[in-house]
Specification:
Layout (H helix, E strand, L loop, with lengths): L12 H4 L1 H14 L3 H21 L7 H15 L8 H8 L7 H22 L3 H78 L1 H29 L4 H14 L3 E6 L6 H22 L3 E9 L2 E8 L10 H12 L3 E5 L4 E8 L1
Parallel strand pairs: 1-2
Antiparallel strand pairs: 2-3, 3-5, 4-5
Helix pairs in contact: 2-3, 3-4, 4-5, 5-7, 6-7, 7-8, 9-10, 10-11
Length: 353
């Protein structure tokens, strides 16, 4: 079992938040507090740590239990440890999982009011309640906002995947119908003319030869029609994929910059570029946490170059099936694929034309 739900794409953020718990654990030792306070702090840290990770698995109203536990811990340690306000901040940050923003902000208001009232009644130290109220209001609001944005992105991606799945089903049905209509009559005609030529071989060789030539012509026409039909079922093209990419990025709140020059791409090259653009844009929306994405297509000498660059978190990335499949398709055309994660993510594809 993993500590963090994998289906929510939280990355390393939950582990980074633990730095505040480290401040809480170290504060009594740095201040030279009594041994009893130090022991209670260590015990409290060990108890709250599994509750912290457990909280990431809770959604909706169940988050209130997590919030209540953290507030109780904060209240218990308020007079012993000045860093105990971190528990109230944690409680506020979990409210992003409570539901839509209206629900999260309503619970956040109740939390701030409850902590303020509790601090006044119990006369808790100002270093506790001042930090708790200010930081929980600030970070709680930010967390609720980003949790809502992440849910919108997940819904957008799910809707796109569902749309693509339905489109594939519709395409298969159309292929079956069109091939039946296209080839049914043609194959029947080929069979009839072949049988006629066979019967005329001995009695009328000249007409038999004419019928065979007709069979050859009809077969070539049918082959050309099938090829034309198959070309129609492939990718709708780079221009269509570019329009879809802009729609997806803008719906995810990412500003799009494009610089696309006409390039002499073959149908295969255009299909590879279109598929690469689709995969790269999906990665930007799902993983990059970017605010700007630049899409560039240009011809550089004997090469055509596609760049997808974002200002997201970048970093190293293990090649999954999407990126490795993209690399295989590019290299099959004699091209190269480069990825740079030093400043955001830059994906560059170069294919000879």
């Amino acid at each position: 079992m993993t500590l963090i739900p994998q289906n929510r794409d939280l990355g390393w953020t939950p582990y980074a938040w633990l730095v505040y718990l480290a401040f809480f654990a170290a504060a009594p030792f740095a201040m030279g507090s009594p041994g009893r306070v130090q022991a209670l702090t260590v015990a409290g840290t060990m108890i709250i740590l599994p509750i912290y990770f457990w909280g990431y698995w809770q959604m909706g109203r169940r988050v209130i239990w997590v919030v209540a536990i953290f507030v109780l811990f904060g209240t218990f340690f308020a007079r012993m440890n000045p860093a105990s306000s971190v528990f109230v901040v944690y409680a506020a940050c979990f409210l992003g999982q409570a539901g839509e923003p209206s629900v999260g902000f309503r619970y956040l208001g109740i939390l701030i009011a409850a902590v303020g009232m509790e601090s006044w009644i119990l006369d808790l130290p100002i270093e506790y309640w001042a930090a708790a109220l200010f930081m929980s209001a600030l970070l709680g609001s930010v967390t609720i906002h980003y949790a809502h944005r992440r849910r919108l992105t997940e819904r957008l991606l799910a809707a796109r995947e569902q749309s693509e799945h339905l489109a594939k089903i519709a395409e298969r049905e159309r292929i079956a119908r069109d091939l039946h209509d296209l080839l049914g009559h043609t194959l029947s005609l080929i069979v009839l003319k072949s049988e006629l030529a066979s019967r005329l071989t001995e009695t009328d060789p000249a007409r038999a030869a004419h019928e065979i030539r007709d069979v050859e012509r009809i077969s070539r026409d049918a082959l050309a029609q099938v090829r034309a039909a198959v070309r129609g079922y492939r990718s709708a093209g780079f221009a269509s994929e570019l329009r879809q990419a802009r729609e997806v990025l803008e719906a995810a709140g990412v500003q799009v910059e494009t610089a696309v020059q006409p390039a002499p791409l073959s149908a295969t090259q255009e299909s590879v570029f279109a598929l690469a653009l689709r995969e790269a844009v999906t990665n930007v929306v799902r993983h990059a946490q970017a605010t700007v994405c630049r899409l560039t297509l240009r011809q550089d000498g004997s090469y055509c170059e596609l760049e997808i660059a974002d200002n997201g978190r970048g970093g190293s990335l293990n090649e999954g099936s999407g990126l490795s499949g993209m690399r295989e398709r590019v290299e099959a055309l004699g091209g190269i694929l480069e990825r740079d994660g030093s400043q955001g993510t830059l994906l560059r594809i170069r294919v000879p034309v």
